[in-house]
Write a structure and sequence with these properties.
- The protein is α/β, with parallel strands linked by helices and about 250 residues long.
- Helix content is about 35%, strand content about 30%.
- It has two domains: about 130 residues, Rossmann fold, CATH 3.40.50.2300; about 100 residues, LytTr DNA-binding domain (OB fold (Dihydrolipoamide Acetyltransferase, E2P)), CATH 2.40.50.
- The protein is elongated and about 65 Å long.
- The mean pLDDT is about 90.
Amino acid sequence: MRALVIDNESSIRKSVVDLIAAFCPDIKEIAEADSVANGIEKINAYRPDVLFLDVELGDGTGMDILSQLGKISFPVIFITAHNKYAVDAFRFSAIDFLLKPINPEELIRSVERAKTENNTKLNEQVALLTEILQSSISINKKIVLRDSDSIYFVKVSEIIRCESEKSYTTFVIDNHKNIVVSKGLKDFEEILEPLGFIRAHQSHLVNISRISRFDKADGGMLVMDNNDMVPVSQRKRDQIIELFKGQ
């Protein structure tokens, strides 16, 4: 594999190159670039198998580079500082990223994913990432979900509920087949709670706007607007009751 590292800070760029050389034996060649202009030139000349791309560059952003490339045919791993809003944007768009300073174990996992990554919708994912980074939280915000066969762009408002089983999460979506994602519920709770979701039970995360009623009998049960029944844990019961009092 051939890698290209684009970062405008020479010390960070060198650190990434050294980590790749030390921990990623499948990557035999590593090139470097330090700007949008130089990055586009290097991509066209070098044709990398994987691109490590800083979000903020001196003459623009990593998204500026990708928007000028046309069809993106190689996996992209973004490099970013620990900013919760940016991290949430990457999670929503399901684009791989590494936080500075880079953890070698995370680097290895990202490179392993890059070997088998489905890049057929990467352009759309980058467009969604750019939209999220440029806009405030919105009811029309979309999230990217991946199952074993496809990549889906789903409006958050159309997600009725999420249910977990072991390390998998099933998304129940309005007028759409269920989508099963190989991630735990905790990963989605962190990004969906600020958008109006609540953890009703250890295995259930629900869209508050899609709740029809709360049946208090037998410990408590939420009835969703598609008539699905979601159990309420004893620990969450009081929080759910307070939620309905405020409506």
